[in-house]
Amino acid sequence: MAAWRGAIMRRNDVAADKEPVSKVTVEKDGKGRYFFALTYRGVTYPVNGPFANPLQAAAAGQAVLKRLEAQAGGKS
């Protein structure tokens, strides 16, 4: 999954060492399918997918991240 890679970070969720606490990373596999991995509060969750394009993968990842933040009361 190294052909295409991108990351989307949320708001000011950056730890003291400048690494984002919450982010969605989108990757493309060898068959042209896109997947997202989610990091929330420093914990990386398993890869989800496949999606037809990186925008769909990123949108799905952001939706999951938004739900996690809502469950936690918006604190991250």
Q: What would you say this structure looks like, in words?
A:
The chain has one domain (5-71). The model has no long low-confidence stretch (mean pLDDT 83). It is α+β, with helices and mostly antiparallel strands and 76 residues long. A four-stranded antiparallel β-sheet has the order 1-2-3-4, covered by helices on one side. The protein has one helix and four strands; from the N terminus they run E-E-E-E-H. It has one helix at residues 54-71; strands at 5-9, 23-28, 34-40, 43-51. A hairpin with a 2-residue loop joins strand 3 and strand 4.
Query: For the residues shown, what is the average pLDDT?
Result: 83
Q: What Rg is obtained from the alpha carbons, in whole angstroms?
A: 12 Å
Give unreliable regions as ranges. Answer: none
Order of helices and strands: EEEEH
